[in-house]
From TrEMBL:
One MF term in the entry's GO annotations: hydrolase activity
Known cofactor(s): Zn(2+)
Protein name: Replication restart protein PriA
Co-factor: note: Binds 2 zinc ions per subunit.
Top enzyme category: isomerase
Cellular component terms (Gene Ontology): primosome complex
Function, in words: Initiates the restart of stalled replication forks, which reloads the replicative helicase on sites other than the origin of replication. Recognizes and binds to abandoned replication forks and remodels them to uncover a helicase loading site. Promotes assembly of the primosome at these replication forks.
Reactions that this protein is recorded to catalyse: Couples ATP hydrolysis with the unwinding of duplex DNA by translocating in the 3'-5' direction; ATP + H2O = ADP + phosphate + H(+)
Organism lineage: Bacteria, Pseudomonadati, Pseudomonadota, Alphaproteobacteria, Acetobacterales
Record's compositionally biased regions (Polar residues): 182-193
């Protein structure tokens, strides 16, 4: 019997069956399922087991009651159960248990986002290897008599188990041996290990051969599994051919030694930069909590190019020196190629990378690397939060203000906020890095909850770019054009000096709207309340909401008028067309999700730009993020007003963050950068803040407005989104929600039901309700109770979005 560190098994009565709580990776209600424990099986929390579920065998995790959650988030107690009716656990798998910090994190995310526990658990288990992932074994010479230690012995009679031959057999080999965990990192015994038959007494033992045998025997006595050809040749001063001949003669054999680690450890001293005085001070401030292993959140603020990455690399080195793991969350994986080469430059190896584009095999390797502490640094997209880190010692969230950290498919969560919970559960410090911090982070600094470290200037000789507003009412473009003559003049001047220009417009395709000049008909998506966007490369109409595509028509589908369809407004392809007319000799490249289709494609385009093979870069928000283009000195923002329209309260904050990031691409090296901003409302506070580069003043102003209205981050908010196949049904459910809403609570504000701008999405009719409360109230139990009051059938049509982005 194995000692259990904390009892997962509930011993209700010595004579009764023991029960165990198991979480399964499926969106089922409740907080795990009870099973009985077979005689002689001992389980620890986190152990990975096979259990019967209906007629199938499923993989689950030994779970604990989530008593660590704050009371309002704790799920309601499960009804009492009859142990006699419980089915037994089938087997415990020979894998290390899921770490407690990860299990508690999964509890947190599920409770906070009001999602089924199993749905969140599934995110984590998706990459769990079915059996240990093996790195190439290290082949070593061994004396013939040597038998390598067996990693673990599979449970012999497993195939006789009544459940072992079901339609969906588990992917695991079974074992009862917990003590066999080292097997997870050891290579499988290789078939090459079979000893060759000794070929009789004729084998000659020359002095050289005898020396080799002695040397090997000594190595084995010292506890080694063998010696490599190089080691053996060096230690005995013999030629490798002698070693090969001995193997042929059956005197020695080649066997597997310990495998190389799945990931090479970073070399902390590989390429240490000389930090400037400000940078060194910042790095030291970040390192203090790392050395003390305490949870705290620090904002590392600094204009783009101030060296935030260099500074947090230094903090990472500190965590690695403490032998703890580091997680770096990046907003978009497109960024990772540049980031990884910087990491390589600093630490001499590549980190473990985690994103949605990986093969299952790559994912399993990272998953295992995390749980066995072989992956020291993981850089990834938001779901990297669910990796089973053995000893997490630092979490970095780069570009913390980025809206892509908010996941909206599956269960909605904000990866930045959840990263902070993840770190807190591991007692690890957090670094949030940004040039344009989010209002949430700003509010936490104001409240004294987060620390603030500032890098005041760009590194080296680079200065911040000069920003100029272009009032489009006074400097309009020519008819049918979108670029003001002032901007095109500046472009020509810049390119005359062999420098690059970037034009930014956050709109993919050629034109956002196509209109029939005869009847006024507008081409609309058949599945959404959205216009079809015309694309020319390749030619087609695309709905940017649901990705519906159709050919570009030449005839109006409403009135049949021939060749009278007109593109209205610009997309980046139309800007590229205009640029081509103006500068036919120049080399233009487009950076948008349509062209950055894979990491390879992205690297290729980035390399061309970096090498100076392009003159003009035209891009959507894909160009805003972190790129460092040394020859780029002029940035033109084609339409600064674009995202300010619309009723979203966060529009101002997000526009400013985005445009500030874009502006930061200009002049990152010696040459002074310039930014020209085209706007029809240059007096707008956001455009003014952008032109003056005074982000803090904007945050101060914006926080006053939000504070006065108890809007986030000064209040809590949850959105309920109703989706149904028919408008009638959506209305009906909206009515049910409105009727049962907690109107009696005067401390809450209930808004809606309302019809969102995107009233129909993918043929689903949508309605929305919002509930708001002061920061002191947890809304989760209120929502849970509210939803329990409407019919079960209706509940299925409601998505819960905790801390929604738009309001
Ligand atoms: P940020 O993350 O704030 O945008 P980076 O860390 O990317 O800034 O730094 C901008 C550029 O300056 C990079 O090319 C980086 O290598 C360089 N740099 C910053 N600090 C140093 C330093 N102390 N020594 C050498 N190069 C530096
Ligand atoms: Zn659509």
């Amino acid at each position: 019997p194995l000692a259990t560190s904390s009892p997962a098994v509930t011993d209700t009565n010595a004579r009764q069956k023991k029960t165990v709580l198991i979480a399964l990776p499926y969106p089922l209600p409740g907080w795990g399922f009870h099973y009985s424990l077979p005689q002689g099986m001992a389980l620890r929390p986190g152990d990975i087991v096979h259990v019967p579920l209906g007629k199938r065998v499923e993989t689950g995790i030994v779970w604990e009651e989530p008593t660590h959650l704050p009371a309002p988030l704790r799920p309601p107690a499960a009804p009492p159960l009859n142990p006699a009716r419980l089915r037994p656990v089938i087997a415990c798998l020979p894998l290390p248990p899921l770490p407690q910090t990860l299990r508690q994190f999964i509890d947190w995310v599920a409770a906070y986002t009001l999602s089924p526990l199993g749905l969140v658990l599934a995110t984590s288990l998706r990459a769990m290897p079915a059996k240990p992932v093996m790195e190439k074994a290290n082949w070593l010479w061994q004396p013939l008599s040597f038998t390598p230690p067996t990693p673990f012995s599979p449970l012999a009679n497993m195939d006789k188990h009544p459940l072992a031959k079901t339609d969906k057999p588990g992917p695991f080999e079974y074992s009862q041996h917990h003590s066999a965990y080292p097997s997870f990192t050891q290579p499988e015994p290789s078939p090459n290990l079979q000893p060759a038959k000794l070929s009789g007494p004729s084998v000659r033992i020359t002095p050289q051969r005898s020396k080799i045998l002695q040397c090997l025997t000594q190595a084995i006595e010292e506890g080694k599994t063998g010696l490599s050809t190089a080691e053996l040749a060096e230690q005995t001063q013999t030629n490798p051919t002698v070693i090969k001949a001995m193997s042929k003669a059956g005197l020695i054999k080649q066997g597997a030694g310990p495998a190389a680690p799945l990931f090479s450890p970073p070399d902390l001293t590989y390429n240490v930069p000389t930090l400037s005085e400000h940078q060194a001070k910042a790095a030291e401030a970040l390192s203090v909590p790392i050395r003390q292993n305490i949870f705290c959140v620090t904002l590392l603020e600094g204009v783009t190019g101030s060296g935030k990455t260099e500074v947090y690399f230094q903090a990472m080195a500190e965590a690695l020196a403490q032998n703890r793991q580091v997680l770096v969350l990046l907003p978009e994986i497109a960024l990772s190629a540049q980031w990884i080469s910087r990491f390589q430059h600093r630490f001499g190896v590549t980190p473990a990378v985690w994103h949605s584009d990986m093969t299952p095999k790559q994912r399993r390797k990272v998953w295992q690397g995390c749980i066995t502490h072989q992956a020291k640094v993981v850089v990834g997209a938001r779901s990297a939060l669910f990796l089973p880190f053995a000893t997490l010692g630092l979490v970095v969230v780069d570009e913390e203000h980025e809206t892509t950290f908010k996941q909206e498919e599956g269960f909605s969560y904000n990866a930045r906020d959840m990263a902070i919970i993840r770190a807190q559960l591991s007692q690890a410090p957090v670094i949030l890095a940004s040039a344009t911090p989010s209002l949430e982070t700003y509010a936490n600094i104001q409240a004294g909850k987060y620390r603030h470290v500032l890098l005041p200037n760009r590194h080296g000789h680079a200065t911040t770019p000069q920003i100029k507003l272009l009032d489009m009412r006074q400097h309009p473009p020519l008819r049918g054009m979108f670029l003001s003559p002032l901007l095109t003049e500046a472009m020509a001047e810049t390119m005359d000096k062999n420098q690059q220009v970037m034009l930014f417009l956050n709109r993919r395709g050629y034109a956002p709207l196509t209109l029939c000049r005869s009847c006024g008909h507008r081409l609309q998506c058949p599945h959404c309340t959205a216009w079809l966007v015309a694309h020319h490369n390749p030619p087609r109409l695309i709905c940017h909401q649901c990705d519906h595509q159709e050919p570009l028509p030449s005839v109006c589908p409403a009135c049949g008028a021939d060749h009278n369809l007109a593109p209205i407004g610009p997309g980046i392809e139309r800007i590229a067309e205009e640029v081509h007319t103006l500068f036919p000799q120049k080399r233009v490249t487009i950076m948008a999700s349509d062209t950055l289709t894979s990491p390879q494609k992205t690297s290729q385009i980035v390399e061309q730009i970096t090498a100076g093979q392009k003159d003009i870069i035209i891009g959507t928000q894909s160009v805003a993020k972190g790129w460092h283009f040394p020859h780029l000195t002029l940035v033109g923002i084609v339409d600064a007003d674009l995202s300010l329209a619309g009723g979203d309260l966060r529009a101002g904050e997000h526009t400013l963050q985005l445009l500030h990031q874009v502006a930061g691409r200009a002049g990152r090296e010696q040459v002074q950068g310039h930014v020209l901003i085209q706007s029809y409302m240059p007096e707008h506070p956001v455009i003014q803040a952008l032109a003056k580069g005074d982000f803090t003043a904007f945050l101060r102003q914006e926080s006053k407005i939000r504070q006065a209205g108890f809007w986030p981050p000064y209040g809590r908010m949850i959105a309920l989104i109703i989706t149904a196949e028919t408008e009638q049904k959506a209305e009906l459910i909206a009515l049910q929600l409105a009727k049962t809403a907690p109107h009696h609570r005067t401390d809450l504000q209930i808004l809606g039901p309302s019809t969102p701008v995107l009233a129909i999405l993918r043929d689903q009719h949508r309605r929305r309700m919002l509930i708001r409360a002061p920061k002191t109230i947890f809304l989760q139990p209120i929502i849970q109770h509210w939803l329990s009051l409407i019919p079960k059938e209706s509940q299925k049509h409601i998505d819960i979005d905790v801390d929604p982005y738009s309001f």
